[in-house]
Amino acid sequence: MFWTDSSKISLKGYCKNFIDVSITQEDGLTWKATFVYGEPKLELRHVFWDRIRFLHAQWEGPWICAGDFNGVLNGHEHKGRCDRSSTQMNLFRECLEDCEPIDLGYIGPKFTWNNRLAGINNVRVRLDRAVANSHFIRLFDEYRVENVVTSSSDHYAIKIVLGEHGQGSRSIHAVEQFR
After folding, report:
1. CA-CA distance, 82 to 104, in Å (whole number)?
2. Phi, psi of 10 (to 5 degrees)
3. What pLDDT digit, counting tens, does each position of 15-61 carry?
4. Edge-to-edge, what's the strand order for the sheet holding 18-24?
5. Quick check: helix, strand or coil at residue 171?
6. What is the SS3 assignment for 6?
7. What are all long-range contacts of 90-94, with beta carbons under 8 Å and residues at least 24 apart?
8. Is there a contact between 24 and 39 (Cβ–Cβ < 8 Å)?
């Protein structure tokens, strides 16, 4: 995580699947950011969804959650020979419904992960995203999420640019390199 202003960043918790921080701005406003690496093992992914729910329950203020969720919300976010499991997509959707965030969309390539195989063996998926609750969106009424091509990973980086009530912008870069 990188930031471009003098905000105070406090580590609230971390494990192999997330880094959870609070950000206190110069004006005293505090909000929370959680950067995730979703559980890669399908049989353990429900534990990851429960952790996201727990983090959500611990905070009532502005919250953004971004990174590699290792899941998709619907079939058009996956392109390859085999379809994604509807059960797994439903579990991801249920987690987000419970936490009430809004997908912030993106600028740039739709698919954020590519297995780099050729032809019919190529798989492309939108695994990486940013979601935020309504408190966060009201606070930062201007925001932009960019999927940035990188050469050092099979995932694209996520760059989040937040407008500050018409007073310029700040950036957060969430890169899934901490795996």
Report:
1. 27
2. -120, 125
3. 999 999 999 988 889 999 999 999 999 999 999 999 999 999 999 99
4. 8-15, 18-24, 30-37, 63-68, 128-132, 102-103
5. strand
6. coil
7. 91/45, 91/46, 91/49, 92/49, 94/49
8. no
Q: Are 163 and 149 in contact (CB under 8 A)?
A: no
The token pair at 19 is 């880094």
Reference 35, options 154, 170, 179, 138; nearest CA is 179
Q: How many CB atoms lie within 10 A of CB 68?
A: 24
pLDDT digits (tens, 9 = 90+) for 91-127: 999 999 999 999 999 999 999 999 999 999 999 999 9
Does 3.60.10.10 match the CATH number of domain 2-174?
yes
Report the DSSP beta bridge partners of residue 124.
79, 114
Residue extents of the structural domains in the chain: 2-174
Whole-number Å distance between alpha carbons of 65 and 33:
6
Rounded distance, CA 112 to CA 97, Å? 22
Instruction: List the one residue out of 96, 95, 158 whose CA is nearest residue 126.
Output: 158
Report which secondary-structure segment, H or E, holds 20.
strand 18-24
